[in-house]
Amino acid sequence: MLDFIELFNGVARVARPALENGAGASAMQDRLTEVGIDSLDVMVLLMYMCELYGIDEATSKEWRAETVSDVHDLLMAHKTREPASVASALEQIK
For residues 80 and 56, is the Cβ–Cβ distance under 8 A? Predict the structure, then answer.
């Protein structure tokens, strides 16, 4: 099974290349506003995550996530596929 926090942090660094080393989520309960990404970064992060999980853009536009767990739950509820590994997912969104 995929380490979702590792995936989240990897995608967050793609969405916000200036994210400081060491910044990012450490737990599912972490609030998005506290992990070093702003609202625009969250939109980009969700775009990438939806691409990885096979979720159409119209569905994701309605989402409101406040925590890493919220992002996970939304993805799991709507996914049509799942990345094989964190490395392959990050390679796919480069």
Answer: no
What is the tens place of the pLDDT at every residue in 69-87?
Answer: 999 999 999 999 999 999 9
Please, how many CA atoms are within 13 Å of residue 5, restricted to the half-sphere of its CB?
11
DSSP per position, the chain: ---HHHHHHHHHHHH-TTPPTT-S-SSTT-BGGGTT--HHHHHHHHHHHHHHHT--HHHHTT----BHHHHHHHHHHH-S---S-HHHHHHHT-
pLDDT in tens, 20-74: 666 789 999 999 989 888 888 888 999 999 999 999 988 888 888 999 999 999 9
pTM score: 0.91
The pair of structure tokens assigned to 24 is 């990012």
